[in-house]
Amino acid sequence: MELTKTAKLQIYPSDSDKTLLADSMRAYSDACNYISHYVYTTKDLSQVSVQKHTYDTVRTEYNLPSQMACNAVRTVIGSYKTNKSNGFDWTECKYNTPQMTLSWNRDYSLNQDKFSVGTLHGRIKADYAKSGMEQYFDKSIYRFGTAKVVYKHGKFFLHISVSFDSDEVKDADICNVVGHDRGIRFITSSYGSNGKTTFFSGNQIKQKRAHYKNLRKQLQQVRTPSSRRRLKAIGQRENRWMQDVNHCISKALVESNPKGTLHVLEDLGGIRSATERVRVNDRYVSVSWSYYDLEQKLIYKANEHGQKVIKVNPRYTSQTCPKCGHIDKANRDKQRHIFCCKNCGYTSNDDRIGAMNLYRMGIEYLVELQTSISGL
User: pTM of the entire structure?
Assistant: First the structure.
């Protein structure tokens, strides 16, 4: 089973090389905008066709080397296909931030001493932040792939996709089950075989989201050059902070459970379409809920540690009594966050109930597998 992660590191080009690198990134972004306009007007998403109609112009007018010209086509088509898969309308993709996508051993190379990259005016070599990168040079385990050079806050960064093989967890090796109920009040509520529930509070996230929302609103209302500079400086700070939180939580969930653990999540695909049922004042909190990012981080960390993640139908997980199985919408009091079964009277925190039901569904998943195997 092949897994891929992204290694991010800062690079330190000399002053003269910074100019060469910045010019190349700007030309690459301009070429992407040219290709994007062609794709938008023709609705052509065939890589062969798009490259046939844009390659010569990209090579002559934007001076991109042949491999970079091919990479620019792939970058643009990938953006449109991603938007399409996410259900967005057909809108023209813009590439306003200087960037550059590179192919391993063609546009760039990396060893334990230097980072080497091709530019519009020859190849340059630069130092880079080596901390944490030592492990990836074990070629018997890791393989470098496509990389991207990005420019943020006056600094250059390199994002490298690193692939490696991991043993796929077999259902027969599963020895532990944990159900994770994801939400906004609690990021995760986890219930395991030991009968204990672990909560990760979302209060700090709500406060941080509200802070950035109000800050952006104030700066946008000012409309001065300094406010626009401040908005630009803030950049993706909120998203980076949220990704770090999700990294910490997913790491804690994986490392607190043994090898052979089955993590059970609700399949929350399509939940964004439910925003019209959310109060306007709470809508920003709902649409900024990063459940998918946490899910993806948990999946790849679990695979690295010999664990498995499955997604199940979320229907009735918050309305079903885990003790007697009675299903009733009235079982849950959303305002007080209390679950009280109308049949047997079992009472608990409503988020804990969701995690308990997901745990039960994980057990049922294993029982069904064993039944099907024994019936063969």
Answer: 0.76
